[in-house]
Design brief:
By secondary structure, this protein is mostly beta strands. Helices cover about 5% and strands about 40% of the residues.
């Protein structure tokens, strides 16, 4: 949900809440005027439609630790946001105070601050509201200007309307961090971010400073490594927006769709869960990493992972490449990847190189990629051939059908390539001799995964271009 839409909904909520304001300053159980009102442990604030609740809770198995959080009312264990993640209260004497010069203030029994929203002070009356989206918002009552909102400070959960990404102008980032353990909301080891360094953007999961999983780059319709997104089309609108003040992944719920949330678990998995109100259970719509081929760079540089070949070996080399360390490869240690069998021909501004079209794959990590959204695929090919460091290219946007449009080019190497359902075409540069003894035009070799579970090779057919 765009910031302008959030602001509009918030202003509407303020108008309604002002009409309900009582002499004591309690605007309802959903809104509090900024006049020193508070919520003590045992009291709650509920969104207008009743979907979300703000209050104090103790994780299962840790009754002496109290946290201020927001949870899905129908499923209290589905905690979506926690204020004092790394500073739990030791008893039930905590209080959330509205009206401080610092905005929201969480105090323990001795009056010490356990958490603060650090909202910029304002002389105008302010209102705090828990919206039906699950967003806790502090804003000026008269103008509707948002001073602070929980959606800008995610915990381990991404709700519809939240953003995963970055504001290039301010450097502010919206990311998810796992809990330390199922009963410990303190920040854990796993961190989910939208990588905006190289566009098109990709979602990346880190464990500490080690990259463990990527979705593949955004291709206009979905992340190239998550074909499941196509199945959401009637329920969720998924997009990556690129604006001067934000580069962000945003999910919006379609009318009558079930409530869903994206969660980074303490074990390093990412799940999209959907609520089933009849059975009162959470259905898993998507889980990543889904298999060994989703392990980041499982097969190393120029390696190719196929989850259908577990009976032999998940990894093979892209045609035209051989294992860099054959003995290690034999032992199924494939992280060293593959090396080119025949050097490329690139000198004096001419080349006889061609491209193999590797079909149906998740596109490589974009750390060493450049993009030009205005280029055609044919222009992309020409630019790659003219650059001796360019080793592969692909369409950046497949929304128009056909071969797509836009240009992503990789230099030096490609990693994290695997076969996926509804995957894309990756054009890998090879020396002319790799295509056979062709004496005329350069050729392209089209490759798709073998359907046999007893081979890890791909099947390729030559075609001239």
């Amino acid at each position: 949900m765009a910031a302008a839409t959030i602001k509009f909904l918030y202003r509407l909520a303020l108008v309604l809440s002002v009409l309900l304001t009582s002499a004591a300053g309690i605007v309802s159980n959903t809104t509090l005027v900024n006049n020193g009102a508070n919520i003590t442990d045992g009291e709650t604030m509920v969104s207008d439609g009743g979907s979300f609740t703000l209050g104090f809770f103790a994780p299962t198995g840790a009754p002496t630790k109290r946290y201020l959080g927001i949870w899905f009312t129908a499923s209290p264990e589905a905690v979506c946001w926690v204020a004092n993640r790394d500073r739990p209260l030791n008893d039930t004497s905590g209080v959330l105070v509205f009206g401080s010069a610092r905005g929201l203030l969480l105090l323990d029994g001795s009056g010490q601050t356990a958490w603060s929203s650090n909202t910029t002070a304002t002389s105008a009356p302010a209102v705090t509201q828990l919206l039906e989206s699950g967003n806790l918002v502090v804003g000026e009552q008269s103008s509707g200007s948002i001073l602070w909102q929980s959606f800008d400070h995610p915990s381990n959960t991404l709700l519809p309307g939240m953003r995963l990404g970055k504001n290039p102008q301010t450097g502010d980032e919206w990311s998810l961090t796992s809990w330390r353990a199922p009963n410990d909301p303190s920040p854990g080891d796993h961190h989910l971010v939208l990588d905006t360094q190289a566009l098109p953007a990709a979602i990346v999961l880190w464990q500490g400073n080690v990259k463990t999983y990527t979705t593949g780059p955004w291709n206009g319709l979905r992340f190239s490594g998550i074909p499941e997104i196509a199945s959401y089309s009637g329920m969720l609108s998924v997009q990556v927006v690129v604006r001067p003040d934000e580069v962000a992944y945003i999910v919006t719920t379609m009318p009558d769709a079930p409530f869903s949330r994206l969660v980074v678990n303490d074990d390093g998995t990412v799940e999209r869960l959907a609520w089933e109100p009849v059975s009162r259970t959470w259905n898993v719509w998507m889980r990543s990493p889904r298999d060994l081929c989703d392990s980041y760079a499982k097969c190393g540089a120029f390696g190719l992972c196929n989850s259908a070949t577990a009976s032999t070996q998940f990894c093979s080399c892209i045609d035209g490449f051989s294992p860099a360390s054959p003995s290690q490869w034999y032992m199924r240690e494939t992280s060293d990847g593959c090396r080119r069998r025949t050097p490329l021909d690139c000198s004096n501004g001419t080349t006889t190189d061609g491209f193999m079209v590797l079909g149906g794959v998740k596109l490589p990590d974009t750390d060493n990629a450049t993009v030009d959204m205005s280029a055609t695929l044919e222009q992309c090919r020409a630019r790659c051939l003219a650059n001796c460091s360019c080793v592969a290219y692909a369409a950046a946007d497949i929304r128009g059908g056909g071969d797509g449009s836009g240009c992503v080019m990789w230099t030096d190497g490609v990693v994290d390539v695997r076969y996926v359902d509804k995957g894309q075409d990756l054009y890998v540069r090879l020396a002319k001799s790799e295509f056979g003894k062709q004496k005329t035009a350069p050729v392209t070799m089209l490759c798709y995964p073998s359907h046999s579970r007893f081979t890890h090779s791909s099947s390729c057919q030559l075609r001239t271009i």
